[in-house]
Structures are given as C-alpha cells and as structure tokens.
TrEMBL record, chain A:
InterPro entries: FAD-dep_OxRdtase_2_FAD-bd, FAD/NAD-bd_sf, Fum_R/Succ_DH_flav-like_C_sf, Fum_Rdtase/Succ_DH_flav-like_C, SdhA/FrdA/AprA, Succ_DH/Fum_Rdt_flav_su, Succ_DH/fumarate_Rdtase_cat_sf
GO cellular component: plasma membrane
Compartmental location: Cell membrane
A Gene Ontology molecular function term of the record: succinate dehydrogenase (quinone) activity
Database matches in Pfam families: FAD_binding_2, Succ_DH_flav_C
EC number: 1.3.5.1
Known cofactor(s): FAD
Keywords for the protein's UniProt record, in alphabetical order: Cell membrane, Electron transport, FAD, Flavoprotein, Membrane, Oxidoreductase, Transport
Family per similarity comment: Belongs to the FAD-dependent oxidoreductase 2 family. FRD/SDH subfamily.
Residue ranges annotated for the Fumarate reductase/succinate dehydrogenase flavoprotein-like C-terminal domain, each copy included: 514-648
Domain FAD-dependent oxidoreductase 2 FAD-binding: 47-452
Chain residue ranges for the region called Disordered: 1-20
Name of the protein described by the UniProt record: succinate dehydrogenase
Automatic annotation (TrEMBL), chain C:
Family, per entry: Belongs to the succinate dehydrogenase/fumarate reductase iron-sulfur protein family.
Superkingdom per UniProt: Bacteria
Native organism: Streptomyces himalayensis subsp. himalayensis
InterPro entries documented for this protein: 2Fe-2S_ferredoxin-like_sf (IPR036010), 2Fe-2S_ferredoxin-type (IPR001041), 2Fe2S_fd_BS (IPR006058), 4Fe4S_Fe-S-bd (IPR017896), 4Fe4S_Fe_S_CS (IPR017900), Beta-grasp_dom_sf (IPR012675), Helical_ferredxn (IPR009051), SDH/FRD_Iron-Sulfur (IPR050573)
Name of the protein: Succinate dehydrogenase/fumarate reductase iron-sulfur subunit
Keyword Cytoplasm appears in the UniProt entry: no
Domain named 4Fe-4S ferredoxin-type: residues: 149-178
Positions of the 2Fe-2S ferredoxin-type domain: 1-102
Keywords: Iron, Iron-sulfur, Metal-binding
PROSITE patterns: 2FE2S_FER_1, 2FE2S_FER_2, 4FE4S_FER_1, 4FE4S_FER_2
Required cofactor(s): [3Fe-4S] cluster; [2Fe-2S] cluster
MF GO annotations: 2 iron, 2 sulfur cluster binding; electron transfer activity; metal ion binding
Gene Ontology biological process terms from the UniProt entry: aerobic respiration; respiratory electron transport chain
C-alpha cells in the first residue's frame, strides 16, 4: 500500500494555551490564568495515570497530595521498576552553584540550540525555570545526590554545554530520583489517595463524547480485561525506542499506550526524532536482546579515538599515540569529547563507515581512560565511574582500567511523541501526555541529563498546575458506564485483537517479528536516512504486517499470565508506528538533530537544517492502519534564541 | 502502630540478646569458680559455701544465690521462649526448600538451634546432677568437690559434659557477636574486635569448663 | 555450549510445581543468562509449548525485576543480578537448576515469577520522607556531611530485587528494610520521621510474614548491590532508639 506516503496536509495545529508576553513570565501568567479546582471538590475527581516512571510517579504523587483521587497503572510488578530507574548520568538544573556563568536563560538557550531549533521556546523556558525547583524537591525527599566535602551538592558537565550544571548520584541518578518519586507515591498509596494497579497494562483509551474518560487495561496475572473510568487520563508511558528491537530501553517498555491514544485521535508529533546515544556497549551477536548504555558522563574524562589507518587490527595499547585519531577533539576542538549526542553518534558512524571501526565487525570506537587514570589516579576514576566500569567488565569480560572501552551508538530516547500544548494536553480533551511520552521540549535532539529534568518538571510541577484548569473548565461529567457504546466498543476491540493473536497459530514467534521490524528500522530509519531507503522501508512494513497476521504464533490462552501474548500485542503497534516514523522521516527532507538525511548535509558532512521549509513540529493524525495520515504543522517561532547553524567546533 | 518489644521480631531478638548476655556473664564467673577445683577440695568446697553467704549480713543465708538463680531462670526462659517463637516464625517464612541444595552459612550459625536445645537439656541434667543430686547416685550435699569428681569418673558424665561445652563454645561464638548486632553496637570498625572477643570468649569458656573433666580423667583432680 | 536446564514450572499460584528438564544447544559464552532463557523460550513457543515465565525488564542490573535462583544461589554464581550474569560463568555440558525466589511472603505467580508486593507495602509503611511537592526549601539550605551522604547513597542503592529474602534461610527481609531505613534516617531531611519510620517499617515487615534475622549473612552475600550486613545492625540500633523514645513519650 504505497498510498500511505501520499499524505495530506490538514489544518495547522495551534498551541492555544501558551500565553503571550515575555518568555520568562509566561509560566507565571499561565498559572495565574489557569482556573483552580476547589480543594473540597478535588476528591470527587478521578485521574488515571498510566506509568510510574519519573513523570508518572511524580505526577501521581503530586496530584494525590493535592487531593485528587488517582488511579495509577504500571505493567511492572512494582512502580519502582519503571525504566527511568536506568538513567545513569544526571539531571540538569540552572542552579549556578559553580558560579560558572550558568543561568535559567543559558539552560534555556542550550536546550533550544541542542534541540537544533525544533522545540517550542515557551516550553523550554518553563523547563529551565522549573529545573531549579526540582533539585530542591528531590533533596527534600532524601535523594542522595553526590556531595562535596563541605556538604554541598556536587556538579559535573555533560555534552553540548560549557557549564557544570548536572547533579548526579554516582552512575545511578535515575534510580535515585525514581525512588524519590516512588516513595512519595507510596506515601499516597498508604494514605488511600492512590489506587495502584501494578502488573496491569493499558491496552486502549476510552473516549466518550470527544473526551478521554478512561482506559481498557489487562491484568497481566489473571488476564482479565477491565475498564477504568476517570475525569482525565494522563499518559506517562515513556518513549517508543523499542520499535528498533535493540535499544537501551527496558525489554518491556512499549508504545502501546501512546499508539492506542493516537489511534483514538491524539496527534503524534515528530515521530522520526530518535536519539542515538553515542556511548553504548557494542553488540556481540544475534542473540543480543538489548543494548547497554555507558553514561555520557564518561565523556568528561574518557577520550574517544580510532586508529588513523583503515583495518588497523593491533590491540589498542600497541597503537602509538601518533597513529590514533581523536576525531572528536580534532573536528570539534572547543567541545571536544563533549559534543551533543547526535553529533558524537554520527561521527562514530562515519569513522566506522570509513573502515576504521574497532572490535568485532568494526562496529565500535575506543573510549579511553588511560590519560584520566594517569592524571587523576586509578582511585579517583574508580570513585567517579566505578560502577560503570564494573558493568562494562561484566558484559564484555574486558577490564576498562587496562584496555580502552569499546563503544558504539544505540537507540536511546525518542524526542517525538504525542503532540501536546503548553498545558501538556493532547488533541483529545482530557488526555494529557507527560515525560518521554510527549514530544514537547527536546526538539530534534535531547541534551544529556535533560530527560530526567523534563520528566520531573512535567510530573511534579507542570501537569499538577495545568490539569486543574481542564477539570475546572469542563462541565461536571456524567458517570460513564460499562454499557456505553464507546466503552463496549473499546473492550470488544481489545478482546478481539488478543483473540485473533491467539487464533493464528502460525510458525513465527513475536520476537522474530519484533527483531525483523527493528532491523529494518535501524537500517533505513536509524542514524542516517535516505529517501530511497525510507521508501524501501515503507514498502516492506505493510508486507511484514501482513505476514505477522498470517504467521504469528502465541501459545497459551488470554486468561492467564502470558508474556508471549503481551509481547505480540506490543509488536502489533510497533508495526504501525514504524510506518509513521518512516513517513515522518521521509517528509522531513532536512537534517536536524537526531534526524540526519543524507541528501541534506553541508560540504563537510554536517547536518544541514532547512529552516524556511521545516521550522515546524509535524503532528500526524491517524486515519486507519496503512492509510495515509494527515499532517498538521505547528509552526515554531523563535523570538529569543535565533536559529543558527549549530556549531560545536 | 507502636508495639511492645515482645510483639516485634526485632524486639524478641533483643530479649534473646540481653538474656544471652546475662547468662554469658554468669558463665564466665561460673567457669572461673570451677577452676578452684585445681586447688584442692578444701578451697573448692570453701568457695562453694561462700556462694551461699554472699551479701551477709545484709542478705540472709543463700539469698544472693537465690536471687541469681531467679534471674538466671528468667533469662533461660526468656531466651528459650523467644528462640522458640522466632524459630517457628522463620520456618513458616520459608516453608519450601530449594531443590538445588548447597552448603549454607557458617557452622556456628547452623548449629544455633540444635546447640540451644543441647544446652537446654544439659542445664536440666546439670542441675539434677550437681545441684539437687536427683540423678546422681551417691550425691552428698555440701561436698561439691567429691560430687564433681564422681560425675567425671563416669564415661557418660564426661561425654555429656564435653559435648555440651563444645556446643556452648559454638553457641557463644555466634551468639555474642550476634547479640552485639542485635543491640546495635556493631559497626564496620568494631566488627573485628567484636568477632575476636566472641572467639576468645568461646575458647576460654570451652577450655575452662572442659579442663575440669580433663583434670579428673588425667588424675590431676581426684 | 550445550546445557541441561532443570527449571521450576508452576502453572499458577494455586497449582503444584515441579522441576522440568530441557536441553539447549548453541549457547554462546557472550550471551547473558536471560538471553539463554530467551533461546529456550523461542524453541518452546515454536514447539507449541508454554514458554518459561520469568520477570525481567531493564537487563542492565538496575530495575530489580529479574529474580532467579541458579544452582541454589540467588542471581547465580556471580555477585550481580541475573540479567548481568553471562554464560561464560558456565561450562559446556553443565546442568543448571533454575528456581524462583522462595519465601512465603513472595508467593509464586507462575514458573519463576513471584509476587514481591510485600516490599512495596513495607515502603508504604514509612519508607519515605514527607515532602509534598512545592514545600521544599532551597537545596543548599541544609548541607549534608559527605560521609552521611555517602552512607545514605550506599544504602539507597538497593534495587528491591528480593535476593536477600531468597537467600536467607529464614526468608527475612531485614536487609531490604534496613537499607531504606538507613538511607533516610541518616539524612537531616529524614530526621523528623526517624522513629516512626523504623517502628512502622519493621512492624509491616513482621506483618508480611518475613522471618527474623539470625545473622547468617547470606543476604549480604547475595545482594547484587553490596548492601552490607552491618545495615541490619544499624537498623536494630535505630529500632531500639525509637522504642526507648516511644517509651518516654
């Protein structure tokens, strides 16, 4: 069905919620203008939150503290296991504790520039403002950030910036922040303000009279499909990087919640903006089930290099200094090893494509700590990065204190997601998307240590302010009942989908399809994309989809704990989402951030943005499986940070 | 939700620790007293008589001894009851075993329960043997030296006693260190010294107590 | 490598379980243990058999989902999580026994999957600092001495996997509970709830049916994050302190 790429352009999409006025006053203005819900009435409002990561956990806790009745879901056995737990490096905040010239405005500027001018100024500025409060909040909750001997908080630098504004807890910052949110959530569960449903997965959204009013979810232990109703639904279900099969996402992270919402009318923005993280452990073989990140913080002290000569297969320690190419330091002298992720990843790909890659298959570059160990001593390196070095050694069986690490880029984060306005509301009234599930703040490339910042900003501060406005302005809703046609339809569709999966009884496993679509996406919609390749992918995806429904094999029944069924159901959605990603990548005939179109580059191989044509967010409207979606453009206006060609040289 | 000490598993462990330490203190004194046997019957019997006169004239004859006996009895009962209840709890918490067995934990830890039962039985026998003389043919009240020599002149007396004292050593070794942890006095810096004290205490008590039957057997005491 | 696996199979919480034997071939030493199980499951699915259910998610040793007892050891022979265990720790021809966490407070859900919600309830009983959003003072208002911050971090590293309970011959959750208490109680921010936290969490731990501590040290040996046994000592100290203080009130 090649007609899929013959999309139409619809009405532009407009963010009606962002107030006018100076950028640094907009959040205050919005908070003042937003209507409030009387504290006594909050108990009467039920809010569903899907996901318990940094965004969902912090949102659930805060909404419950405000007095709302929160019903919260996670597919994990405990909210503490949401994949935010795996973030290593840190969280940015414009505290300027280092007195190194940092400020809210600089964080705002760095983030807009780092995102390659494809994010909304209003949102990013708000994020920078709130960053400061996040650190206060987390410290008050007992998050054990790294401290200096004087007892004050320590900072380190991250890619794409020249100040030290990253707060961290060794290599486990995500874990510590998540536990803080989880503990706040637990307090509200104990207080009876949150009804928690672990091991329960959202399988569809319930939209009644044009408003999001609930979800259809499956109890993963008993297999029972249930409906849950609310006055508003918040999706905090994370990103969709697992469409690539191999990524740094958790095995069970999936796109079902947001994709089902998209199918029900929520626009999906910038799906092709995926972040390829430069420092992951290279894959070892076909058995590989996931990739493991090595924190970007390692680039503070590690130096990245490959041999100058092609096919130089001497062990790294035998390659003399003058035969090594520290290519990031060479090409980008002022940022060196700390260039943004998209640039570091692409540079690694380039040297590997030139045949200078190292390790099995030539798919790797060295990240060398020899100089750092000499300069700081092994002990200091151990204190800073010990757990990462241990992890590397466990996976690769190589000692990074003795031989340089081998790293290679891998899919890590998705900047795209459900389109949201300044209030984080999607195009379905009453449906909100927060954290990685939305598209808002990172533009075409996310800076390191900004995901944690955004997740917590959305969950602790933004959504709890803006959702009040929605609830206060909407007329008091009628109760939704099980037998409402829209509800019955959603339940029936879900049941049919699962029944169909079980009925095919073919000869291929869910994983084999996942792997196939993942490899296709990595080849044609990965680090570098071409028109030809994207067309190929768009041709192939419907074929895979067709084959899926012919050959899928799911053992067991739907009325039991059935991990194969869970997996197969998620793959259905990847097979549709992948198509939209390719279409978005095809239509955006420019290079920007994580999206690199080979047709659009400068003579020296850098990404060439086309601001006059593509300075917009692409929000796609679903029209049917395999049917061409409708493109709605949200024009991006830059009043404060004027788009320039990014330069980190 | 504040509960009494007895309602909490940590509280019961505290009871075990405190009662255990009381008994341990008593045993150290007891063991040192026993060594008097090597100075002959006169000195040993005199010491045994003195035990009954402690605190006189403030206290009546044997009052001090009875106070000690009451405290010890309370300690034994508290120790055994909490041990029994905690063990029940532990077994209930882990009803099914792993199919794949492997050696677990140190010998001392594994023998805490059996060691405790052995020691409990021993205490009963020991009192019936040398305090009341109930199970001791030819027991003569007021002649402790002779009674001790009698007991250790039988093979079963020696076997029971030596087995019990070895159990005591192991029990003390883990128990003392364990009590320190339960009472929260352990720390990383103190761990070595606590383990050393536990080992020394265990060794001294075992050697000290066993020296008596060995003395009798070798004819050093007769 | 070719391996013989003996795996605990149990249909659901109410069913009886038993060990089943499987052969797997073509295992690479670079595979992780869970990738080896993936291989087995792919084969089982194609044969129309029920694949082995096991919990796993991040596969980088931090989420705490994976939970296998391998040859009698929680998380297997290396001091790490199951997902970070690699097949190079085994030899061609080995027979490997794989069982679920066993404790009455962790009932089996299916095969190797257990219900660890008791841990969540222990945290709900007091494993938090009451700091509602928006109430926080400036982060630098209260400096925390570095040794205290490091102590807090060391205990905060717990991933809630439950290996301590699985390894403990008494099915005790002392190490898990103590890790959270020590993390929060040492911080100045945690001081106002210092006593109620330890009393409530220990009470909840008892109510969940976990066993008591006999200081065998098995928990700390199994802990993939190296939470020290001394954590329990410190919790006992906190508990006694809180009990004394509660008595005075």
């Amino acid at each position: 069905m090649s007609s899929y790429s013959e999309y139409e352009t619809g009405e532009p999409v407009v963010d009606t919620k962002a107030p006018k006025g100076p950028v640094n006053e907009r959040w205050d203005i919005r908070r003042f203008e937003a209507k409030l819900v009387n504290p006594a009435n909050r108990r009467k409002h039920t809010i569903i939150v899907v996901g318990t990561g940094l965004a969902g956990g912090s949102a659930g806790a805060t909404l419950a503290e405000q007095g709302y009745h929160v019903v919260q879901f996670c597919f994990q056995d405990s909210p503490r296991r949401a994949h935010s737990v795996a973030a290593q490096g840190g969280i940015n905040a414009a505290k300027n504790y280092r007195n190194d010239g940092d400020s809210i405005h600089r964080l705002f500027y760095d983030t807009v520039k780092g995102g390659d001018f494809r994010a909304r100024e209003s949102n990013v500025h708000r994020l920078a403002q709130i960053s400061v409060e996040i650190i206060d909040q987390c410290v008050a909750q007992g998050v054990p950030f790294a401290r200096e001997y004087g007892g004050l908080l320590d900072n380190r630098s991250f890619g794409g910036v020249q100040v030290s504004r990253t707060f961290y807890a060794r290599g486990q910052t995500g874990q510590q922040l998540l536990l803080g949110a989880y503990q706040a959530l637990s307090r509200q569960v104990a207080a009876g303000n949150i009804e928690l449903h672990p091991r329960t997965e959202m399988l569809d959204l319930i939209v009644v009279d044009g408003r999001a009013r609930g979800i259809v979810a499956r109890d993963l232990v008993t297999g029972k499909i249930d409906t849950y109703f609310a006055d508003a639904v918040v999706l905090a279900s994370g990103g969709y990087g697992n469409v690539f099969y191999l990524s740094t996402n958790a095995m069970n992270s999936n796109a079902t919640a947001i994709w089902r919402a998209h199918r029900k009318g929520a626009y999906f923005a910038n799906p092709c903006f995926t972040q390829i993280h430069p420092t992951c452990i290279p894959r070892t073989g076909d058995h590989q089930s996931k990739l493991t990140l090595m924190s970007e913080s390692l680039r503070n002290d590690g130096r990245i290099w490959v041999p100058k000569a092609k096919g130089d297969d001497r062990p790294p320690n035998q390659i003399p200094e003058d035969e090594r190419d520290y290519y990031l330091e060479r090409i980008y002298p002022s940022f060196g090893n700390l260039v943004p992720r998209d640039i570091a990843s692409r540079a690694a790909k380039n040297v590997c494509d030139e045949g200078r890659g190292v390790g099995p298959g030539g798919q790797g570059v060295y990240l060398d700590f020899a100089e750092a160990i000499e300069r700081m001593g092994r002990k200091a390196v151990e204190a800073k990065y010990g757990n990462l070095f241990d992890m590397y050694q466990r996976i690769t069986d190589e000692d990074p204190y003795e031989v340089p690490m081998r790293i290679y880029p891998a899919v890590h984060y998705t900047m795209g997601g459900l389109w949201v306005d300044y209030d984080l509301g999607t195009t379905i009234p009453g449906l909100f998307a927060i954290g990685e599930a939305n598209f808002s703040d990172h533009g075409a490339n996310r800076l390191g240590a900004s995901a944690l910042m955004q997740g917590l900003a959305d969950g602790y501060f933004v959504l709890p302010s803006t959702i009040n406005d929605y609830l206060a302005r909407s007329p008091h809703h009628d109760e939704v009942s099980e037998d409402h046609p829209a509800v019955a339809e959603a339940v029936r569709e879900t049941q049919d989908r699962l029944a169909r999966l079980l009925a095919v009884d073919g000869d291929r496993t869910p994983d084999s399809f996942h792997r196939e679509i993942g490899e296709l996406m990595w080849e044609f919609c990965g680090m570098a994309r071409t028109e030809e390749g994207l067309h190929k992918a768009l041709e192939r995806i419907p074929e895979i989809r067709e084959e899926f429904w012919r050959r899928i094999k799911v053992p067991g029944t739907g009325e039991e704990f059935n991990q194969s069924l869970e997996k197969a159901n998620r793959v259905i959605d990847y097979l549709e989402l992948a198509e939209l990603m390719c279409l978005d990548a095809l239509h955006r005939a420019e290079s920007c951030g994580g999206h690199f179109r080979e047709e659009s580059q400068t003579p020296d191989g850098e990404a060439a943005r086309k601001d006059d044509e593509f300075s917009y967010a692409a929000a796609w409207e679903f029209t049917g499986t395999g049917e061409a979606p409708v493109l709605h453009k949200e024009d991006l206006v830059f009043e404060y940070v004027h788009p320039t060609q990014r330069s980190y040289a | 939700m504040t509960r009494t000490i007895w309602d909490s598993s940590v509280g019961k462990k505290t009871v075990m620790a405190v009662s255990g330490l009381i008994m341990l203190l008593y045993l150290v004194v007891h063991m040192l007293g026993n060594l008097k046997i090597f100075f002959g019957s006169g000195e040993f019997n005199h010491y045994a008589h003195w035990l009954r006169t402690i605190g006189e004239p403030f206290l009546h004859y044997e009052w001090a001894l009875w106070i000690i006996r009451v405290v010890l009895l309370a300690a034994v009962v508290a120790h055994a009851t909490s041990a029994y209840q905690l063990s029940r709890r532990d077994i209930k918490a882990r009803p099914s075993k792993y199919v794949h067995k492997r050696p677990r934990a140190s010998y001392a830890t594994r023998t805490m329960r059996w060691g405790g039962i052995i020691l409990g039985l021993f205490i009963v026998w020991h009192i019936l043997d040398l305090t009341t003389g109930t199970v001791h043919p030819g027991f003569e009240s007021g002649r402790p030296y002779q009674n001790v020599v009698d007991t250790f002149s039988t093979w079963y007396g020696n076997v029971i006693y030596i087995v019990a004292m070895l159990a005591l050593g192991l029990h003390t070794r883990h128990g003392f260190w364990s009590a320190a942890q339960t009472l929260g006095v352990g720390s990383r810096t103190r761990d070595r010294i606590l383990k050393t004290i536990a080992n020394v205490l265990a060794l001294v008590l075992t050697v000290g107590f066993i020296s008596v039957p060995v003395g009798v057997m070798t004819g050093l005491v007769s | 490598m070719k391996l013989t696996l003996r795996v605990w199979r149990q249909k659901n919480a109410d069913a009886d379980g038993a060990m089943s034997t499987y052969e797997v071939d073509g295992i690479s030493s670079d595979m992780s243990f869970l990738e080896m199980l993936d291989t087995l499951n792919e084969e089982l699915i194609l044969k129309g058999e029920d694949p082995v259910a096991f919990d796993h998610d991040c596969r980088e040793g931090i989420c705490g989902a994976c939970s296998l007892v391998i040859n009698g050891d929680a998380h297997g022979p290396e001091r790490t999580t199951t997902c970070q265990l690699h097949m190079r720790s085994f030899k061609d021809g080995d027979t490997i026994d794989i069982e679920p966490w066993r404790a009455s407070a962790f009932p089996v859900v299916k095969d190797l999957v257990v219900d660890r919600s008791a841990f969540d309830r222990i945290i709900q009983a007091g494993g938090y600092i009451t700091a509602p959003t928006g109430t926080a003072p400036e982060a630098h208002a209260t400096p925390v001495p570095k040794p205290d911050a490091d102590f807090a971090f060391e205990h905060a590293e717990c991933i809630g996997c439950g290996a301590c309970v699985a390894a403990c011959p008494n099915g005790a959750a002392m190490l898990f509970t103590s890790a959270k208490i020590n993390h929060l109680n040492v911080l100045p921010q945690g001081a106002p709830e210092r006593e109620s936290r330890v009393l409530d969490m220990v009470a909840q731990m008892d109510d969940e049916g976990f066993g008591g501590c006999t200081l065998t040290g098995e928990c700390a040996t199994a802990c993939p994050k190296g939470i020290p046994l001394m954590s329990i000592t410190n919790m006992n100290k906190e508990w006694l302190r809180a009990t004394r203080k509660a008595g005075k009130r």
